[in-house]
Amino acid sequence: MQRRRFLASALATSALAVTGKSGAQPTAGKPREYYELRKYYMQSGPQTKLTESYLSGALIPALNRLGMSPIGAFNLSIGPETPTLYVLIPSTSVEALVTADLSLAKDQQFMQAAEPFWAATAKEPPYIRIESTLLIAFEGWPKITPPASTAQHAKRIFQLRSYESPTNQDHVRKVEMFHSGEFEIFQKSGFAQVFYGDALIGPRLPHLTYMLSFGDLTEMDAKWEVFRNDPNWKKLSADPKYAFEPIVSNITNLILTPTGFSQI
Asked: What domains sit in the chain, N to C, each tagged with a CATH number?
């Protein structure tokens, strides 16, 4: 019960930050999704194979049966602490998302498929540690949007960016920037925008996280160059409302490669 109250309070605070203070316009008729961004920290070798088999054969099919889709599964290609597997789990219900493990324990099909992973010994664990962040989708981007290359099974990479802010007020201003024209500038610059999330629970708060997709690193660099030189971006980023002090104190920038079983 205390956990539910805490979640409700966190969600209410986030909603106030994005709508009550930022002036962002709601997306009518489109309720926001919730995301768990899960990281499996591992060592090279048998661990990675066991965890990948668990995700592809047990966890993702079971989450789909719970109505959670599409599930993203990515290998960290450029960034610290490789190998790390990133799993992006969406849900229309925060309660369903945070109680998913309890639901999975009652799924006999899942338990049978997950047995090698769950039965791993302390001497041969399937991972080093798991870390999770709970996010709520931005009002202006309420649902995951897989890039067209996903359906085409084409080559693609994903850029996962997290912006930390020095204060809650600065965090609210940065979220507002996206709703005040940044989405449109990304679109004009040719970016495939996958999701935007405001972190509710997790490390290094306050922060937001978003994901973009490209064919390769060359395309990524070219589109960022277009973005940086867009006159609307220069105007927005110079607006005294956002430029009077640094509203982003740290940026984490990772490059992810989808696994063969990723649904994004």
From this structure: 30-258 (3.30.70.100)
